[in-house]
Structure formats: structure tokens, C-alpha cells
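User: Hello, can you help with two protein structures?

Assistant: Certainly.
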Amino acid sequence: MCHGQLLNDALRHARKEHRCDECGGRIYAGREYHAQSVAFDGNIDAVKLCLLCSAASVEFSEAGECYEEGWTREYLRDEIKAGGWRALRSKLRGTINRIREGHRERKQAALGAKETK
């Protein structure tokens, strides 16, 4: 298995400052971030990602790539070389919007399922 089993997947607003587990950047209090729990090779990891790294992760995995240390920086560097910063920024913003929409849809479906019970 390449990416592990996703156990929990949520968009959250930080109540305190966190660090992105991929790029090491700050996730400031009040900012939105992507929180995941992943089971891989017998371990369970809690991961916090800034939205840019989360979007890059989605783009990376949709391309069929497997995780390696430092993949986000390399992926971003390659994308900037291929199409420039503005094209990458536009692509990642679109992916961030897809992530948000997917979470909204899952949340609404869960609320609808609770109401029908």
C-alpha cells in the first residue's frame, strides 16, 4: 500500500499555532488547516498540513506518486519550472477549493444521515 489507510480527515481552524508537518511553516491561530490520521506500516500518525501542502499532496497523489521525504518541495519546484508560479498558485487554489467542497459535502451528508435516523 502506497499511501496508508486514512482514518480521519478534517479541515479545522487552529485554536493555537501549529507547524505544518510537511513544510514546517506556521499555521497561525484562526487559520484553516488539514488534519489527518493515517495508518501505515503498523503505525498511526496524526498529520497537520497547511492548505498549500494539502493541495500539493492531493495533486501529487492524483498523479500516482508515493510519499517520500521532502516530496512537497520537489513537487512544487518541478511545477514552478514547468508552468511558472502563477499557474501553480492557480492550480493549488483550485485544489484547495475542491478539498473544502469535498469536506462540506461529507459534512452535509453526515448531518442528513443523522436527521433520517
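That covers the first. Now for the second protein you mentioned:
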Amino acid sequence: MRVAHALIAAILAVGASYPLFAEDRAIGKVMLINEGNREITLHHGPLEELGLRSQSTTFRLENFDSLNGIALGDSVRFEAAKSGPELRLTHIEKTDQLDDDHHH
């Protein structure tokens, strides 16, 4: 029994050291840019790998300079990652491609 407890403790320790990691990409619309907190809020379609439905989500920016030329209301193509509870934007660029709600 003591060996089982030690094994469970070791598994839990490793799990805590290496949080689950997932990433996904989508197209979204810039809803809010918070320079002070280095965050951006995007309205996007489902990000299944991150467990997010179609919604507005706030992401932490890994590189605030990557927003060069991106403004509120812009359509963007982005990549996001989840490491533990934190959602991070790993890539963002302007795009002319719009989501289905905005096609003319």
C-alpha cells in the first residue's frame, strides 16, 4: 500500500510540474486591447483544442509588439495556446478573411 501511495504522489508531482498544453488557431475580431495588462479580447469561432466555444475570450499577449497595426474591430488570424489555466496568444495578424457573420 505504501508503494501505491508513493507512486500516486510521484505521478501528481510530475503532473503539477508539466501543465497540460494545447494550442489552436482561428479567425476572430478584435473587441478590446488592454495595453496595461498585455491582453487582447477577441470574438472567435470554436477553439476545440482549447475547450472554447464560439465566444469572446481574453488572451495574454506573449509579444505586445505583434499588435503592430492591429486595432479595434479588425479581423485577425491568430494562434492561441493554453498552458494550465492561462490562455496566451502566440501569433496574430490582420486578415481580409471575415467570419461567416460578416460576409457581404
